[in-house]
Every structure is written in structure tokens, then in C-alpha cells.
Amino acid sequence: MPPLNTSRPFPVTFLLMGIPGLEHLHVWIGIPFCSMYVVAVVGNVTILAVVRAERSLHEPMFFFLCMLSITDLVLSTSTLPRMLCLFWLGAHDIAFDACLAQMFFIHSFTTMESGFFLAMAFDRYVAICHPLHHTTILTHARITIMGIIVVIRGVAFFSPHPILLKQLPYCRTRIIAHTYCEFMAVVKLACVDTGATTRYSLSVASIIGSCDAILTVVSYAFILRSVFSLPSREAGFKALGTCGSHVCVILVFYSTAGFSIFTHRFGKNVPAHIHIFIANMYLLVPPFLNPIVYGVRTKKIREHVLRVLKVNVA
């Protein structure tokens, strides 16, 4: 293993530690992580293929679902393969530029994920609360604009991260106490004051996450009010079941992401292995759950997949 200290201002490589204190369990931890990644890839690719092939699914909900699936594929693929190499092959080294690239993809696409959750909540609000105006409010042009805004927001606010870190000198250890290149884990290795950089990162993440979460909650609050006022109890339970599963996925995403953000700011006494394990959850669990909740539980997608499977078997 190369020496852990260096006086080079720009290190050639960093060393990912993994989950501190759980190194002896890395091989076993990699098994469920790999299983979740396989389900995420197969599930999200299936959703994209089904929506592309079935013209009846060319509706706002499924367009947003495709955007979410692409985001999940990029988010999980930018972290899981490298993480599994660390767990199973002991590949700790990661090039400096590759580390910065991974960091950009993680933070920008996590922000996009949050934005698409909000867009899908708004779509459900319009579909349930204003069903007669659904197609006139969410036209193809507006859906495209909303998607572009979500992508631009993610790229614009988190492009400075790798640029800022590229300017910092690194004369301390090259060991990153994490399973991937997280901004806060890397910035701690700089040998200059990084207070302003840290505050920028935490402020942007907190503001964007809080605004998206609040607006999503407001959308589902209006949805619940409309659901409880439906004359048909069966229709109300059906809508409530659908929205309930959506809310569960969103809660997992925002609770784990929020825990990770605020632990950096306030959780100095939180054990490192707990913090890092939960930080992995908001990158792994939503891409794993989204195809199940939004795909398998969606009747049109489920019927199309079963129809294709029956044809192939026959």
C-alpha cells in the first residue's frame, strides 16, 4: 500500500476506507448491496423499455417516472460498482479526478432525484385534485420544461463542488473515511480553512432538500384532503394505498439524506459507521424501491410486463 501521507497539493489518488469499524464485514455487506443494485438496474431499465414500447403509457406520470428511472440508474451506477470493488476486491485507491467526478454525479443526481419526487407529487396532485384539467395543465411542453429545470438545478448548484475542491491543497492523509467520495469527507482532508466551502455545501443541500420536502408534503396534504372527500370509499382506499406507498419511498429518501446532512453539522457524537451506513442508504434504497413502488404496483406497467413474459414463454 502506498504511503498515507503526502505533501503534494493535488494527490494522484485517495484511499477509500469503507465503513470504519466494520471492515471485517465488508464482504457480507456487499451481498445485499449488490442484490439491491441488480434489482435497481433491472427494474429501472424495464420501466424505461415498457414506457417506450407502450404508447398508452405516454402520460405525465410515466414521463416523470422515466426521468426518475434514468436518475436512479446514474446515481446507483456511479457508486455501487466502485463500492463493491472496495468491499470484495479491496480496491481502496481512487484517482483524484475520478473521485471528483463521482462526487459531482452523486450530489447533482441526488438533487435531481429530489426534484423528480416533487414533480411526481405535483402530477399526482393535479391528477387527483383537478382530473379534468390534468392533460391541459401538464402538457408535453411543460413536462419537458420541468424536467430541464430539475436537471439544470442539480448541475448548476453542485458543479462548484469539484471545482472548489480542485483548488484546495491536500497535505494531510489521503484516507477518505467513507465508501464513496462524499464532499464533506473529502473537504476535511484539505490543509487550509474550508469553512466557507463547507457552509456553501451544507446550505445549498439544506435549502434545496427542505424546499422540495415541504412542497412535496403540501402536495400530498391536498391529495389526502381530496381522497377523504371522494364519494366512493373503494376509490378513496385505492388512491390512499397508491399515495401511501409513494410517501413511504419519499420518507426513506428525505429522512436518510437529511440525517446525513445534519450529522455533518450537528452530529459530532454519531458513530462514524452509523453515519456512513445511513449515508449509503439514500443512494441505494430509493433506486431499489422506486421500480417496485412505481413500477410493479402500477397496473399498466405490470400488465404489459406480464403480457410480454407470456408471449416469450409461449
Automatic annotation (TrEMBL):
One of its GO terms (molecular function) is G protein-coupled receptor activity. GO terms for cellular component: plasma membrane. The keyword Acyltransferase does not apply. It is a multi-pass membrane protein. It holds the Pfam family 7tm_4. Residues 43-294 form the G-protein coupled receptors family 1 profile domain. It is found in: Membrane. The chain crosses the membrane at residues 25-50, 62-80, 100-122, 143-160, 202-223, 235-254, 274-296. The keyword Transmembrane helix applies. Keywords: G-protein coupled receptor, Membrane, Olfaction, Receptor, Sensory transduction, Transducer, Transmembrane, Transmembrane helix. Putative odorant or sperm cell receptor. PANTHER family: OLFACTORY RECEPTOR 56B1-RELATED, OLFACTORY RECEPTOR FAMILY 52 SUBFAMILY X MEMBER 3. This is Olfactory receptor 52M1-like. It comes from Vulpes vulpes. The lineage of its organism: Eukaryota, Metazoa, Chordata, Craniata, Vertebrata.
